Amino acid sequence: MSSEPIIFLEEVLVKRGNFCLEIPKLQIFTGERVGIVAPSGQGKSTLLMLLAGLIAPTKGRVCVCGVDPVSQPPQWRAQQLAWMGAELELATDLRVHEQVTLAAHLMKHPIPSQDITDEVLNRLGLAGFQNRTMASLSTGQQQRVALARVLLHPAPLRLTDEPTASLDKGWSNVCSDLLLGESDAVTVCFASHDPTLIGRADRIISPEGSPP
Q1: Which of 170, 179, 184, 209 could make an SS bond with 42 (beta carbons 3.0 to 4.6 A apart)?
Q2: Is the pLDDT of residue 19 over 60?
């Protein structure tokens, strides 16, 4: 792992209505697999959105990949972050093969080869689904499509919110292995209640926000 943190938070405060999250200090290093675990409403998703630059702290310092993420343009997020929110955000007008190669289109990178795309989809139980629409898929299948999109994204940092929430134990095992089994060049931060996924983390952090 790198000696410099890929994520650094210091004296961070987030206030949103009656909700308050304080993070005195947090460092996450390249190659770590970090689970964010806390009861519902205590800041897991808020922390992930901070790291993605989707919300700004009320005060304090947030540094991701060497910059303040909230001040960066959308192109930076497309390049640096593989994001999977609790809302899967799968465009309804795109088919499966278009969903999972979307990052390459946004980044103007070469599209992953069909062999690579097919291998990821096959491992996620989606062989032959390339031309299926989102409306034709179950919730669990849609979640695996969203995970395939993360796995095919070349970004150095993966941020995922409840990535196995709609999966049974068998698929949770498969998807946990795929999400966390990459090289040490990839850093993964995930929020989850899934003991299968949590058990594979290198480290667990627990934000202690005040529920609204």
Answers
A1: 209
A2: yes
